[in-house]
C-alpha cells in the first residue's frame, strides 16, 4: 500500500477543522489551545518530545465532548469539563497511536489542589495536563475582537486570581514568562492557523496508517448515537467488498475503506433527535440533515491524498438522476467509487437494527435496492453485483460491525482499569 499517502500536517488540520464544525461557537479554540500548550511547554523548558505531547494534548483535550449530542456549546463543555476529559481519555485509549495522549487529556481539567493530593510526584501526564488546563482557560479569556496585546494584563490578572487552586507553581511560572512575549499573543489571537507551523518535521502517513486513524474517527461518530453504532464500519466493509469485486486496486480499496469510515463524519454536527427520529423528517429537520454531506466535502477536500476519498464520501447522497443532495451532480460525475459508496450506505442502513425497526430481511432489502436502481436513482450494476454476493457481503458487514463494537467495549474496560 502507498507509503507516503498523506501528511501529519494535513491530518491535524483536518482534525482541528472537524472540531470547529462540531463547536462552531468556539472557532479555532483547539488551534489556539494547541499552540499555547506548545509555547507553555517551551517556556517551562520541556524537551521537544514533551512539547509535542503538549501540542497534541491541547489539540485533543475536548474530544470527549463530541460524545455529547448536537453542537456542543462552550458553556456545556466547561460545565461538564471533568466528564469530557474522562470520555476523551477513553476514546484516545482505543488506538496505540493516540494512547500516549489519553492520560494527558484525562488530567487536563484536574485542579492543582487535587493533583497534589493524588500524586506524590508529578509525571509528564500531570505536568502536561496542567499545561492544557491553563492554555484552555487562557484561550477562553481571550476575545478575538479586541486588540491582542491590550488583553494580556487582564488575562494575567484572571489567571493569578484563580491561582493555585487550579494551577501549580511550575505552570504559572511558565505562563508569566509567556506574558512578556508579544508575538505569542499576536499569534494566538490573530493567526491561530499558525499552530501548524509548530509541526516542523512534516511526517507522512502511509495509506495503512491513515486507514487506522480514520477508523478511530469513525468510532467517534458511531458511538455518538447508540442507534447508528457501527454504521460507518458496516458501510466501509460493504464498500470494500464491492470495490474488490469490481477489481479496484488494493490502494483504491484502502481509500474506499477510508471514505466509508468518514462518509458520515459530519453527523457529529447533527442533533440525535434528528439522526434517530423514527418517522419522516420535517423539511426543517431534513435541511439540517443535508448539511452533513456538504461538510464532509469541505472537511476532506484539501487533505493531500484524499482527492478521490473526498468525492466518494461527500457524494453518498447524490442520485444518478440528479435528485440527490447537496450538489445535484449528474451521473457523468458519479464515478464507480461514488456509486459503490451510495449503495453501501443504503445497504448498511437497511440491514442494521434501528430504534424504530429491526433490520430488514434479504428479500425486502433486494426489493428496495432493485426498486431504487429501476427508478434511476442508484447504479443497477453495483446493485446486481451486491445481490450476486449478498450473503458473503452481508456476513462481512456484520462481522466488521461486531468487531468494531467489541473493540470499543474493550477500550472502555481498559479505560475503567486505568
Ligand atoms: Fe449520510
Ligand atoms: Fe451513512
Task: Please explain how this structure is put together.
The protein has 418 residues and is mainly α. The chain folds into two domains: 6-198, Hypothetical protein af1432 (Orthogonal Bundle), CATH 1.10.3210; 207-417, Hypothetical protein af1432. Helix content is 64%, strand content 1%. The chain is built from 21 helices and two strands. A two-stranded antiparallel ribbon has the order 1-2. Helix 16 packs antiparallel against helix 17. The two termini are 35 Å apart. Bound molecules: fe (ii) ion (FE2) (2 copies). The site of one fe (ii) ion has 5 residues, from helix 13.
Overall average residue pLDDT = 89
Q: Please give the number of β-strands.
A: 2
Fill in the CATH topology of the largest domain: Hypothetical protein af1432
Which strands sit side by side, in order, in the main sheet? 1-2
Cα distance, first to last residue?
35 Å
Low-confidence stretches: none
Number of DSSP helices? Answer: 21
What's the helix-strand series?
Answer: EHHHHHHHHHHHEHHHHHHHHHH
- Identify the bound ligands: fe (ii) ion
Q: State the secondary-structure class.
A: mainly alpha
Query: Number of domains in the coordinates?
Result: 2
Instruction: Specify the CATH architecture of the largest domain.
Output: Orthogonal Bundle
The biggest beta sheet is recorded as: 2 strands, antiparallel
Proportion of helical residues: 55-70%
What would CATH call the homologous superfamily of the largest domain? Hypothetical protein af1432
Gross morphology is elongated
How much beta, percentage-wise? under 5%
Using the coordinates above, name the CATH class of the largest domain: Mainly Alpha
Quaternary structure: single chain
Amino acid at each position: 500500500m502507498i507509503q507516503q499517502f498523506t501528511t501529519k500536517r494535513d491530518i491535524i488540520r483536518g482534525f482541528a477543522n472537524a472540531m470547529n464544525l462540531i463547536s462552531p461557537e468556539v472557532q479555532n479554540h483547539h488551534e489556539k489551545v494547541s499552540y499555547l500548550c506548545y509555547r507553555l511547554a517551551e517556556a517551562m523548558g520541556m524537551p521537544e518530545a514533551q512539547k509535542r505531547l503538549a501540542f497534541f494534548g491541547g489539540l485533543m483535550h475536548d474530544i470527549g465532548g463530541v460524545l455529547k449530542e448536537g453542537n456542543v456549546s462552550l458553556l456545556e463543555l466547561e460545565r461538564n469539563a471533568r466528564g469530557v476529559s474522562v470520555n476523551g481519555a477513553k476514546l484516545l485509549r482505543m488506538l496505540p497511536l493516540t494512547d500516549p495522549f489519553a492520560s494527558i487529556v484525562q488530567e487536563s481539567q484536574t485542579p492543582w489542589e487535587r493533583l497534589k493530593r493524588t500524586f506524590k510526584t508529578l509525571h509528564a501526564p500531570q505536568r502536561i495536563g496542567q499545561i492544557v488546563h491553563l492554555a484552555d482557560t487562557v484561550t477562553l479569556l481571550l476575545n478575538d475582537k479586541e486588540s491582542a496585546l491590550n488583553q494580556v494584563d487582564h488575562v494575567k490578572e484572571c489567571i493569578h486570581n484563580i491561582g493555585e487552586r487550579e494551577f501549580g507553581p511550575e505552570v504559572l511560572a511558565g505562563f508569566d514568562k509567556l506574558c512578556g512575549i508579544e508575538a505569542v499573543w499576536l499569534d494566538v489571537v490573530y493567526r491561530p492557523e499558525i499552530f501548524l507551523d509548530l509541526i516542523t518535521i512534516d511526517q507522512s502517513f502511509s495509506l495503512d496508517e491513515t486507514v487506522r486513524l480514520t477508523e478511530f474517527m469513525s468510532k467517534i461518530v458511531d458511538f455518538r448515537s447508540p442507534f447508528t453504532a457501527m454504521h460507518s464500519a458496516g458501510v466501509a466493509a460493504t464498500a470494500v467488498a464491492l470495490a474488490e469485486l469490481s477489481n479496484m486496486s488494493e490502494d483504491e480499496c484502502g481509500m474506499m475503506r477510508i471514505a466509508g469510515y468518514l462518509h458520515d463524519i459530519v453527523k457529529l454536527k447533527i442533533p440525535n433527535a434528528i439522526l434517530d427520529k423514527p418517522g419522516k423528517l420535517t423539511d426543517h429537520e431534513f435541511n439540517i440533515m443535508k448539511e452533513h454531506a456538504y461538510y464532509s466535502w469541505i472537511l476532506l477536500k484539501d487533505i493531500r491524498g484524499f482527492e478521490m476519498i473526498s468525492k466518494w464520501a461527500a457524494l453518498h447522497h447524490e442520485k444518478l438522476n440528479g435528485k440527490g443532495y447537496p450538489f445535484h451532480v449528474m451521473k457523468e460525475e458519479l464515478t464507480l467509487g461514488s456509486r459503490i459508496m451510495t449503495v453501501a450506505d443504503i445497504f448498511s442502513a437497511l440491514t442494521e437494527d434501528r430504534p424504530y425497526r429491526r433490520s430488514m430481511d434479504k428479500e425486502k432489502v433486494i426489493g428496495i435496492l432493485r426498486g431504487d436502481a429501476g427508478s434511476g436513482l442508484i447504479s443497477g450494476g453495483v446493485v446486481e453485483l451486491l445481490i450476486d454476493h449478498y450473503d458473503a457481503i452481508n456476513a462481512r458487514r456484520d462481522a466488521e460491525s461486531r468487531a468494531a463494537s467489541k473493540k470499543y467495549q474493550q477500550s472502555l474496560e481498559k479505560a475503567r482499569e486505568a
